[in-house]
Amino acid sequence: MPRLKILVAYVGTNYCGWQIQNTLSRRPQPTIQEELERIVERVTGSPIRVFGSGRTDSGVHADGQVAHFDIPEAKLDMDWQRTFNSMLPDDIAVLSVEQVADDFHSRKDATGKAYSYSLWLSKRYTPPRLFPFVWATGPLDVAAMDAAAAHLVGTHDFSSFQNVGTDIETTVRTILGITRTPLGTVPTEDTPMQLTWRFEADGFLKQMVRNLMGTLVACGTGKLSPDDVPALLTACDRTKAPCTAPAQGLSLTQVYY
């Protein structure tokens, strides 16, 4: 069967993450995978699994989630992008569709990922259009956050920043870069502005980006010192780095192959 690769964007606010949930609830919250598979089954007449490059948590967004699925030969020539977008809810969109090799795998073939996390540096108000997409932290010492981020770049055991719930072979990952926009000096008063951090790595552990972001914000508020970060890494103990950023500021930006 031919294999298709799709690029998907979504607002995760109303979804219980990417992966279909096995729940006994009478009214389970929908998932992104479920919405896509519903359309594939309707078009092909049979249930077909849509494999994502990775799970995103409940409330997390995506600008560049990658997925793949196999289709009957007879459905290869149809306009899958138009079909998806005509049937998906407004908070999910398929950005592109392409046929790939039969052995392509969206998760196993990925060589790295990039996530972005947006902060709103005021607690006086949050613009309504930004509310579902930022963490309103108030003013931050961004220089301290930069110093803390520098300790996290490179190859480390990130056990202290992993939440439980995933069966993996190793907790060692390589962070290729942590950058922010805008660059330069950021006012430390209660200045209404958005600050976005980008995390690039060869892979991430469960909720690792949210835990890293929570730690950077803790440094930005003075609850932690940047010099505390190396000890958090070497501790390999989740209880030592308990700061977790909320889901709504996080977005899967890009998957590398």
From TrEMBL:
CDD domains: PseudoU_synth_EcTruA (cd02570). The keyword Cell cycle does not apply. It is an enzyme of class 5 (isomerase). It catalyses: uridine(38/39/40) in tRNA = pseudouridine(38/39/40) in tRNA. Residues 8-106, 148-257 form the Pseudouridine synthase I TruA alpha/beta domain. The active site is at 57 (nucleophile). Signal peptide: none annotated. One of its GO terms (biological process) is tRNA pseudouridine synthesis. Substrate binds at residue 115. InterPro entries: PsdUridine_synth_cat_dom_sf, PsdUridine_synth_TruA, PsdUridine_synth_TruA_a/b_dom, PsdUridine_synth_TruA_C, TruA/RsuA/RluB/E/F_N. Its EC number is 5.4.99.12. Pfam families: PseudoU_synth_1. Keywords: Isomerase, tRNA processing. GO terms for molecular function: RNA binding; tRNA pseudouridine(38-40) synthase activity. Homodimer. Formation of pseudouridine at positions 38, 39 and 40 in the anticodon stem and loop of transfer RNAs. Belongs to the tRNA pseudouridine synthase TruA family. This is tRNA pseudouridine synthase A. It comes from Desulfovibrio subterraneus. The gene is truA.
